[in-house]
Sequence to fold (154 residues):
Amino acid sequence: MHIARAKPDDAAVLTDIAFAAKRHWGYPKKWIESWRDMLTVQPEFITSHETYAAILDGRTVGFYALGRKDDKLDLLHMWVLPDVMGRGVGRSLFYHSLERTRELGFRELEIESDPHAEGFYRHMGARRVGASIKELDGQRRELSILIYEIYPVA
Fold:
């Protein structure tokens, strides 16, 4: 597997990955549809954000995107196809995102995490600093806000 900068013409593939990963958690179709704008990756987004794809055997299987948020970077997307989950793709993408964060001169990476992904991020070393409360279809959802602190290379 290797990780490469995504290109604008990768937008449809990245969008498909985001939808497949979100559906994997068994959310109702109505919820998935309500997240359409959030899950859809536009070519312009790829051009204007640090967006990297994981490629395994010539197939794009995951991606992440970073955005600036005040004095830190924000992990805007991190998705892996369900059929390759548990094979180190997410871990590799996350480590790559940390390295990019460091290279860009930031000391913190902020993550607003789906409840199903929080354990992964905490296992990777992020710490919970708060929550974002959302309501969807009359149900309260709590999304964890996590921070991963980037330590300078000695």
